[in-house]
Design a protein that fits this description.
This protein is α+β, with helices and mostly antiparallel strands and 138 residues long. It has three helices and five strands, in the order E-E-E-H-E-E-H-H. A hairpin with a 7-residue loop joins strand 1 and strand 2.
Length: 138
């Protein structure tokens, strides 16, 4: 794996939950928990990053589709909210996505199709499919 492909999370030693996230060799982010969870609220919480990944992927997928089809998409905004809901006696992760598609010349049919296409984004497919995570101590 190239260094530019790596994502490394390191404790900062500041606060109980604060971590630096180095994405590749160019992007630095900060993560924390809100004060209500015992953190210092110095950065987004882990689920905020998950929501951001889903929203960004949907928006980018719509943009790629619109560009490929030559559609007059001016802008796209995606709002994502996550909560655990009880379904059949089990807690299930639920993501509510609201997609605002902006383009005066777009028909409702084109906008509806873009929402359908957004459901095919890679992050949507990943978190709605079967996932396995491995880990090891170093």
């Amino acid at each position: 794996m190239k260094k530019s492909d790596q994502l490394i999370v390191k404790s900062t030693g500041k606060g109980k939950f604060q971590h630096d996230i180095l994405v590749g060799d160019r992007h630095m982010l900060k993560a924390d928990e809100p004060q209500s969870m015992g953190g210092d609220d110095t950065g987004p919480a882990p689920y905020d990053f998950l929501n951001a990944a889903l929203g960004a992927c949907k928006a980018m997928t719509i943009r790629m589709y619109a560009d490929h089809k030559g559609l007059p998409l001016e802008n796209v905004n995606v709002s994502v909210m996550h909560e655990k809901r009880e379904v059949d006696g089990k807690k299930v992760d639920h993501f509510d996505c609201e997609i605002e598609i902006i383009g005066d010349e777009l028909t409702q049919e084109q906008k509806d199709r873009m929402v359908e296409i957004a459901e095919k984004c890679p992050v949507h497919k990943t978190i709605s499919g079967e996932v396995r995570i491995s880990g090891k101590a170093k």
